[in-house]
Structure prediction request, 136 residues.
Amino acid sequence: MPPTEILYYDGQCGLCHRGVKFVLKHDRSGAAFRFAPLQGVTFQAKVPSDQRAALPDTMAVQTASGALLIRSEAVVHLLRRLGGGWKITGAMLAIVPRPLRDLGYNFVARTRHRLFGRPDDLCPVLPAELRARFDP
Prediction:
């Protein structure tokens, strides 16, 4: 089994919270990803400050090799790691040139608070088996 990677998400974004729930639901192994908010100490500790400053405040994936994937590259990677039909979806999305994918990603990122709001409950109560997959 490939090593666990970290999905960093904006803890104040409704769309990001939905994205985390999506990954939790579709991660068949339950070990592909751990989760940490961009506003948390894990992100501060694992991502150098110069790199943090240049990142969008949406989602990023830190791979097992330490690479930090952002925007559509992170989405494609997530889908491929989830496997099944999502792997195929990720492969199809990867065919689209990255600058074009990123245009779509950036549009959604700019409008996400208007479209999806902010989560009503920033600290949802999670079952213990899921809570163990989250870092502060």
The helical segments are 14-26, 41-46, 49-53, 71-82, 84-95, 98-116, 128-131.
